[in-house]
Amino acid sequence: MRPAAPLWVLLPALIVLPLLALLPGISHGGGWELVGQFAAAALRPSLDPIVLGSVLGGLAVTAGMALLGWAGSLVLGLVLGIASSRVVWRTCYGSAAPASWIRRLLAIPRSIHELLWGLLLLQLVGLQPVVAVVAIAIPFGALVARVVSDLLDALPTASLEALRCGGSPAPTALFTALGPPLLPQVISYSGYRLECALRSATLLGVFGLGGLGTELRLTLQSLAFNELWSGLWALLAVMLLLEALMGWLRRRWAMPARLGLSQRGVGSQGQEMVAVAMALLPVLALVAWRLEVQPATLLQWQGLPPLGAADWGAVAALPWPSLIGNTLLLTLVAAALAVGLAPLLLLLATPWPAAGALVRGLWALGRLWPPPLTALLLLFVLQPGVLTGALALGFHNLGILGRLLLEAAETSGGNQEQALLTAGVGPRLALLYGRFSGLARPYLAYGAYRADVILRESVVVGLVGATGLGSQLLEAMSSFAGDQLLALVLAYALLTLLGEDLSDRARQWLLETPHGDGHPQEAGGTWR
Amino acid sequence: MTSLLILQDITVKGRSQPRLDGVSLQVDAGERIALLGPSGAGKSTLLAVANGLLTPQQGRVFWQGETRARSGRARRRQQARIGTLWQDLRLIEELTVQQNLNAARLAVWGWPRALLNLLMPLETKACTTMLQRLDLDPTLLNQPVSALSGGQRQRVALARLLRQEPQLLLADEPLASLDPRLADELLTLLLELASPPRALLLSLHRPDLLSGFDRVLGLRAGRLVFDQPMASLEPGQLEELYAGTPVA
Fold it and tell me: Which of A193, A315, A425, B246 gives the lowest tally of CB atoms within 10 Å of its CB?
């Protein structure tokens, strides 16, 4: 008895059963009235000009931080990606060994979440606009570097070898042979990173780094739900616009979809892409000027409170097994919720267009709504702890996975589903058999990657307490316990590197299609 | 006896000209009908109207005397009686042969059986019989479809069609991408299977394969230009049908 592909995507949803059994135990039920007020306020956002002005101002700061952090990460990622590419080293230097070393080094900044970078920099240089920008640019840059080097190393090298044999110098040959096929993939991925940067900039705001996130947290904590919804609706509008714009550009430039199963042509209209990139430069300069981003301030460290002598005995006495265990449990529950619920909800909503629209709306909210705010909202009715944190992270990632699943479902398996529908099969079963069969492997491969991201993200729900390493780390940070902080950041980094390795193996295994003609690189193989 | 399919004055609009323009026809049990016409004549559109995939802007469709049912369940029951053999077969690559064959029963199965079939494929005996009937090795049942050869895939698609137990078999150029031997084999099988109470409506490009059919329809630019017994078809009619168009 071996479950067939369509069942694989639904199995993680079984996590809902134990959760439903456990929820009454962690529910204190005190704040249902508040939750009701929060939900009702969605329909009555505040239209007060002062509130709207502050929302728009905050949104501009968040968008600006996201744009600058994103641009910085691209520059960093491209340079480091080329520097860590095996094919580049092999062509220029004759050996790929340095590439492997640079890759290993890049794993460290990548393994630390942007929130940690943000909070660490905040302590060092104080509240500066540049902090959020750099906090986004460092881990995103390391991530882009890995994707760029993976993409470069996966490109066919026949034309490169031909040029080298013809006597072209290494840099020219690399640029000519690998540049054109790399460009559309990098641009497609960059568009997706911009969406991520907007989410991250909002999240950093929640932790006090400025912009709309700060407004959202303050309005939530002061229970000003109508004002909170003014910010949320504005953020939702910007995020959906950005997603639509990126989708349009992807289609216009015939670029690969993130979870596409079909072979797409190499992007066209290169001139237009370069023109858009050039047009971005003055925009970036203007944004940096308006936000008063001054990189020089990164070098002016503020006086820190005197750090006590390191007490490594106390560090060792931390409840490490439970900290790590809780972090892993939180990750697994959140990942199972996100991975399993997205296809289940899609399946349930399929026959009714209105239900489908509702589910899409829910996913959009999940994507934009920063997980720590969900966690704070959940605290109105649930006790703090691992499950509360997992629900918050699960909801956020459900939004991301749901959208991805929808995108993929729209571009693959349509013929099989149509064949079943015309044979009288109901819409849900046609979706399950016809579309989910082909989607299962790439979707779960992406889910494995997402679990790795969730592990890294688990720090952001640390503020609800008792969530493992995340909450301990935030506590160490606020009490200036440098020794604990160092140990916890290292533990986090090690755990996420281990998680990354496991998720890579899981993805490779899932994308191995012994009989099929799947294209692992396209089918979520490199997307992060 | 009620006709399996009646199309009355069907019009499907296209961008510049109608894809179907006032087409009427009737298919009775036991009939084996070939649908001929040059590329772009509207053959696929006609079959899509016949299997309910496409709703015409004008005209009426009757399946066994009934118009298209309003309720989803009743409509699915109607559609389950019409089986389509697709040119690209539309098998589900990731599932086993047995699960693919059983996918044809999903219209009548409930959720529990549909899910169970994904866990441990059901109705092995019926599936084995179906494979044997099409000269396929029953050990293929547990193979994923992606591991089959081209000829085996054709037969599995046909087995799935039969497992649906349809009364009207529709086939949209099933022979187009096959080598001559496979095309002959498949056509022979289809003609054998289309015995009463079943009927077959098959579109094809090759007039040389018409001998097994009872009736032949000629479609050009969305209009039915002839509908007559095979025996009375004149070579001149075919020349006229394809005049000025490349015979692909």
Answer: B246
